[in-house]
Amino acid sequence: MNYPVYFLVFILSGILIYFIQKIFIHYKRFDDINHRSSHKTLATRTGGIGIFLTVLIISLYYYFQEIELFDYSLFIPLGIMFVIGVYDDLYNADFKLKFLLQIIVAKILIDQGYVISNYHGLFGLYEVPWLLAQGSTIFVFLVVVNAINFIDGIDGLAITIVAKIILIIEYFSNELTPLALLGFLSIVSIIPLYYFNFKKKRKVFLGDAGSMLLGTLVMIYILFVLKEDYQFYPSFKLNKTLFSVVILAYPLIDLLRVFLIRIRNKKSPFTADQNHIHHHILKGTNSGFYSLVIITCCTLLIEGIILLFWYNRLSTINTFCFSCLRVFCNYRFS
Questions:
Q1: Band of the pLDDT at 14, cuts 50, 70, 90?
Q2: Residue 242 belongs to domain spanning
């Protein structure tokens, strides 16, 4: 794929996002404004639909040209999660139903060869039994996908974190991964959404369709990193498990933090509230854009420091755990 194709992807995504919003407005399918909302204007949760359709249309074109950009069978788990997200956006699906369907999608990925069969030294374990490998993959899938969904609370945050994760994985790779074109297509499809996210009127949000889709894409990338096929660039001597945790640090910390707060307050961990990190930063800055810049810069700084420790051969598990503990303690529970 060359630059004109990526430009076409950018234009196509913008057009689709615009007209899909028009359709939803016509049928009065708006995002509800309530006490948790970060917006006070008309908005739709249709960004994910535009992203998915853009990637699907471009992929279909190359598929019928008999050109394999990536493993097209990945559209099975990605498509299922997208449909789950669309249903959730329209009808507020019960979290138990979503969990069940997410487990099924995780099993599909396992059958496609995306499974955590090696812990790479975590807890002193390397190759693990197949049953444990499947259970670990399902658990991590649920955590990662829902962590990405949880951070989709202010303009541009989830899409920025997802793009950052994909680019970091590709940057540290010895060569472009087999997922690279899927990742780059997704990132270029995401870019027009920034404009619609930050509009003053008639905003377009990523929605659960988008966060579920991109969360699954991130999980596929993480599972590929943990496979033997992924090799770091020779100058980087990194532990795959710890590398994966570091690049997912912000969504994982936010997920753990809100779960602990809700449990402490004797509420369900899945009860929506405004205790996310981005909510507190938004209250302080009163600006979604500045909140996005602060969170992105801080996460890049923390990840850079930890990766710098690794580069200097200080990347022991104890050092990593201590670093994560200090980061976590910096965030108050209230």
A1: very high
A2: 3-329
